[in-house]
Fold this sequence. Notes:
Elements: E1 5-10, E2 17-22, H1 23-29, H2 31-38, H3 42-46, E3 48-51, H4 56-68, H5 82-102, H6 105-121, H7 129-132, H8 134-140, H9 146-160, H10 174-190, H11 215-237
Parallel strand pairs: 1-3
Antiparallel strand pairs: 1-2
Amino acid sequence: MGTKIIAVRVGAEPKHTDFSVHESLIRLSSPFFEAALSREWKESQERIVKLPEGNAHAFRIYVHWLYTSQLCSKLQFNHVSLNDGQWEWANLVKGYLLGDYLQDIDFKDSVMDAMIDWGNEAARECSDAPPHSSIEVYQQTGKTSPLRRIVLDFTTWRIINNFPVSMNDYQFPSDFLTAVVTCLTERIRSGKVVRPGFVDKKYCHYHCHGDRTCYKDKDKASLQEACNEVLDPLRMIL
Length: 238
């Protein structure tokens, strides 16, 4: 991991939050930080990277994930309340958008998996959360974004299955409304019951790693390597 520490200033000054992170760890995970710290830029000289438009809570989730490979935003859904579910979804959206900005594919895919779990555990009580987040999502992502796809899938699936989805009191993006209508029309015309990927927990369907190794397989490989380091000396003795 190394011993060099950098500071990351999140939010507009003076209402910012400073974080201390091991440089090698964050550079290895984020191409954004790799670029910012590998050249003769101001950030590299001052040992501080500023994210004035960043969200401090989302970055806290990111730092926790960097060190533990766990998302600290994950709730226990046994007694989930409406506010808890909406809060969780909103933070996952902000986390994904942060990962997009930092170009950290493994983090984005980890957040996406938490969104899929949310969809199977909390969405029944909080079915308004995904469509209402479409404003933020569509403003900050491109047409092919997996985040757009899962928001659309959540919304249309809930409408088809007669869950209450309030869409009257918000000014939704026209692209989002068009996509919802198109998706619903196609499903009605086909007469087929199409289950979106999140229902069957097809995680990689929403991942952005492409042909590269999924972070889950990387974790398994790392665990196997660690086990081998412990077991190899024992095998030589036995």
